[in-house]
Amino acid sequence: MTEPGSIPTLYQWLGGSEALLRLTTRFYENVKADPLLASVFAHMDADHPAHVAAFLAEVLGGPPDYSQHHGGHPHMIRQHLNRHLQQEQRRRWVGLLLDTADELAMPDDPEFRSALVGYLEWGSRLAVINSQAGAAVDADAPMPKWGWGEVKGPYSG
């Protein structure tokens, strides 16, 4: 809960862990049916939606469960190594996630969606970079933290 008069985190605004798990569960159901993305996630573990929900929760201001149980941002980077993701797949991933958020009636106010789209664009572009040949994991890569008006400098990892 937020204190009266304080600004909620993005995590709080969207409804917390339960809402994120609902989002990622439905999203990956949609991914399995998507002609462009299905093959990328063909070998997805049954726990994948929960892991992504925990990652997003932490990034958006929720509890540090992903870091505590999975190894933080370096672990997420490792999941993308040598996957050779393409921009077309990245764009579809972002679009499908936003479509799923609409399908589930997640908050759609301009401030929240602007912040969410900002993170999804930033994070998915890092995933593409980290998926190309020669990408390496920085063991000290900090967990991204995203709020209502984030501006990040160039990625140096």
From TrEMBL:
Signal peptide annotation: none
UniProt entry tagged with the keyword Heme: yes
Residues at which heme binds: 51, 75
InterPro entries, per database record: GlbO/GLB3-like (IPR044203), Globin-like_sf (IPR009050), Globin/Proto (IPR012292), Hemoglobin_trunc (IPR001486)
Keyword Electron transport: no
Pfam family, one: Bac_globin
Coiled coil spans: none
Keywords: Heme, Iron, Metal-binding, Transport
Record-level Gene Ontology MF annotations: heme binding; metal ion binding; oxygen binding; oxygen carrier activity
Protein family: Belongs to the truncated hemoglobin family. Group II subfamily.
Record's protein name: Group 2 truncated hemoglobin YjbI
Organism: Variovorax paradoxus
